[in-house]
## 1
Amino acid sequence: MADPTPTPGIHHVTCVAGDPQRNVDFWVETLGLRLVKRSINQDDPSTYHFFFADAEGTPGTSMTFFPWADLPPGSVGAGQVSRTAFRVPEGSLGYWEERFEEYGVDYDDRIERFGETVLPFRDPDGLPVELVEVEVPADDPTVPWTEFVPEEAAIRGFHSVTLALSDPGPTEELLGTMGLEEVGSEQDAGGERTRFAASGPVGKYVDVLPTARNGQQGHGTVHHVAFQTPSDEEQEAMRSAVQSAGLRPTQQIDRHWFRSVYFREFGGILFELATSGPGYTSDEPLEELGERLVLPGRFESRRQRIEAGLPDIEIPRPESAGAGE
C-alpha cells in the first residue's frame, strides 16, 4: 500500500469546559479569538459546541469546547493531550503577560523549549495552554482577529500539542505513519520530550512526553485532537494506513463543516482526521460567523426544543469589554 499524503498538521483541538459563558468570555475577550461557530455537540445536542479561531476559521486555528457544566474537574495525565500551544508573533509575550495580569489569568514564568520562548498559562477551567513566540511569515495562511488584541500580538493558530503517554514508542511510530518526522528531543521537567513535525505551516508540531500519572477527563482537559487530511481521498488513504497499523478507525462521519474519522491511538488518546471543507462559511456569511446558533441539518427540526434546553450566552463586544479595555 502506498504511503498516505502526510498530514499538514493539526486541524482543531476539542476540550471540555464548565460554564459556557465563562468559556466564551475567556477565549473571545481575554485571548482574542473569534467565535466562528456556535453550535451543539452532535452526539449530545443538550450541550453547546463552541469554535474559537482566527478571523476566517482557517484550518489549524480552531480551539473548540463542549461546556459540560455537570462534569467534575478533570486531571491531566497519560492518555491525553496534556498541553495545547498557540503561535504568537515574536516580541509579543510582554503584551500577553501584562494582559494576563489585568485579566487575572493564572500563568507561569516563561520557559525555553527547542530554542523557542514559551508562556504557559491555564484557562478558567484549568486547561493547560501555552503561547509560543514565532516569526510569522508574510504568506502565513492565518488571518488575525483584532477585535480585542492588536495584530502584532494576536494568536496565529496552533503551534503544537503535547501527548502524555505511559509508553510513547507505538504512538511515535504512528506519527511517522501519519507523515510527521522526528526533529529533536530534549530533557523536560517531566522527562524526555520528543518533537515531531508535520508538513504544513500551522499546527505542525506534536510533542511526545512520557508520564506515569493517570489522567481523568473532565473540565480543563482535552477531549480529542484532529489532524488535517484536506480531501476525502487523503483522508481515506490515512484511514487505511491507520487501520493497517492495527488501530480501529471509524467510517467517515459528516460533521457539517468537515468530514471526520476517529480512532484511539495506542496510548488511548482520541485522534480525529478532518477534511478542510466545506468550512465554517458553508452555512453562514463570513461577517456573521458565530452570531447565531447553527444546527446541522438533521437537528433543525428540533430547534425549538434544543434552544430551550441551552443556557443563554452573550458574545463579548469591544465596546462593552471589561478589564484591559
Note: The longest strand covers residues 44-53.
## 2
Amino acid sequence: MTRSTDILITALAPAVWGSTYLVTTEALPQGYPITMAVLRALPAGLLLLALTRCLPGRDWLGRAFLLGAFNFAVFWVLLFVAAYRLPGGVAATLGAVQTLIVIALARGILGTPVRAGAVLAALTGIAGIAMLLLQPGAALDPIGIAAGLGGAASMAAGTVLSRKWQPPVPALSFTAWQLTAGGLLLLPAALILEPPLPPLTAANLGGLAWLGLVGAAVTYWLWFRGVARLEPGTVSMLGMMSPVTAVVLGWAWLGQALTEVQLVGAVIVLGAVWAGQAVNAAGGARGLKPREEPA
C-alpha cells in the first residue's frame, strides 16, 4: 500500500471527528460530558476486544492504560473543560497547537529531526484555523486556555508514544486496548462527578452509536494504523481536517453562514496540511521507516 493511500485512510479519522460537535449539540443530552465520553469509549473498546479476542499481556497493560489516559481520558476531559469555558473557535485553535507539540516530542522521544518546513506548515495551519473559527472579541478564560493547551499536549504525547510503543498485534487490537483503558479510567469520574443520565431518546442512542462505533472504534483504528505507518508530524497535521469538517457540516446541516475570511482560512488549512505531508514525506525517506502491523 502506498504512502498516499495511508495518508488518505488516516485523514478519514479527523474528518469524521469533525462531526462530533454537531452530534453532541444536536443528538446528545447536555450536561454529561464525562458520561458521554465513557459511553463513547468503553462500549467501543469492549466491542473491539470481543472481535479481536486479544488482551494485553502483563508487560503491555501499564502502557495500554497510560496511552488510554493520554489519548482518551485526560484528553477528552480537558477538551470538554475547554469547550465549556471558551468559545469553540478559541478551543479548536488551541487544540491545533498539538501539531507543534508533536514535533517537539517526536524530537525528544523518537529522535525525529525538526524540519523548518514542518514547523512553518503547522504555524500556517494554526493561523488558518484561527481565521476559520475565531470570532472578534472572543473571551479568554485562563482555566479554559490551560485546559485547551493541556488537552493538546495530552493527545500529542499519546500520538508520539503510540508510535514508540508498537505491540506485536494488529492496530485493531491496539485500538481496543486503549479505548477500553480510557473508558475504564473515565468511569469513576463520571459516577462521582455527574448525576445519573435521564432516559435516553432514540436520537440520543443514535448519536452515541455514531460517536462510539464510527467516531471511536473505526476512526481510532484508522488513526493508530496511520500512527504505525507514518511519521508523527504527518499524522498530527491531518488532525487539522477536523475543524474544517465541523465548519462545513455547520454550514450544510445547521445553515450557518460562511464568511469570506472563513473560506480563506479553510483553504489555508488544507494547503498547510498538504505542505506538511510534502515536507514530512521528503524527510521520512531519511528518517523513521513505516511499520507494518502483524496480520
Note: Residues 58-85 form the longest helix (28 residues).
## 3
Amino acid sequence: MDAIILQILNGLDKGSAYALIALGLTLIFGTLGVVNFAHGALFMIGAFCAVTVQRLMQLSHTEIDESRTDFLGNPLQVEVPYLESWFGPELGQALISWSVPLAILLAIPVMMLVGWIMERGLIQHFYKRPHADQILVTFGLAIVLQEIIRQFYGANPIPTPAPDALRGSVDFGVWLGFGPGVIFYPVWRFVYFLFSLLIIGGVFAFLQFTTFGMVVRAGMADRETVGLLGIDIDKRFTLMFGIAAAVAGLAGVMYTPILSPNYHMGMDFLVLSFVVVVVGGMGSLPGAVLSGFLLGIVQSFASMNEVKAILPGIDQIIIYLVAIIILLTRPRGLLGRRGVMEE
C-alpha cells in the first residue's frame, strides 16, 4: 500500500503540469476554435520568467570586505547582491531564495501580454482556416519562440532552486497513519500540486460564478447568438486567450524547481498535453483536468523499476497506449461532447 501511495504522489506533480497546460489548451480551443501548437512554448516562457527574476535578484556589485584578506593581507573584493545592500543580508537573501514564487508577479502580466500579442498579431487571421493550417502556423511560432529563448539563455538547463524553507522532504506517511520513515515526499512537489489545484479551482470559479465567465461559456456554446445580443464576444475571447497563456506560464514558473528550464521543455510537454486534451475530450475543461492527473499517475506507475524490468521502455509509451485504448472505446474521449471537431 505504501508503494502504491508513493507512486500516486509521484504522478501528481507531472499530472498537475499536464492538467494546467491542457486546461489552457482547452480554453483556447473551446473559445476560439484554434488548435494552438504554440501552447507548450507559453509553458516554457513562464519557466524563463522565473529564471529572469532569479537573475535580476542576484545582480550584485563589488565591495571591499575589510574582515577578509588574501594571502598578502589585502582586503578581499566580494560580490554583494544589491538586494542585500538595500534590505540587509537576511531580508535580501530571503528575497533571493523566494525568487521562484515571486516570479509569479512578473509572469502574470508578461504572459497575458504575450497571449494578447499572439492572438491579435497572428492567430486571429486563422480562425476560419482549416485546423491543419492552425497547427502548422502555431507549430512554426513555437519553434521561433524556442529559438529566441535559446539565443538569449543558451542551450543548457538552468538550475532554479525552490525556496530554502520548501526544500527537502516531508514524512508524508505519518499523515496517512503509516509508521515514521515509510513515505517521504518532496515538499516542493506537494506545493506544486496544491498550487495547481488553486489555479484550476480559480479558473472554474471564474467561468462559473462571474458574469464575464457566464458570457464566455455562452459564447463557447453559441457564438453567433451572443453576438446578436450586442455583446462583443471577440474581445472577451481575446482576454480568455491571455488567461490561458497566464495559466500555462504559471505552470511553467512553479515547475522550474522540479525540472531545470531549457529551451525545448515546451515541446517536451506539448505533445503529451495534446494527448491529455484528446483523452479528456476536445473542448471539455473537466475532461482535460481529469485526464491530466490520470495520465500523470499512470506514467508514474509505468516508471517503477519492477514494471520496466518486465516491459522495458513502457514508461515512454504508456500514455499513448492508454490514449489508444480510451479512444477505441470512447472516440470522443472521457468527457468529450458530440459535434466537437466532427464533420
Note: The two ends are 47 Å apart (CA to CA).
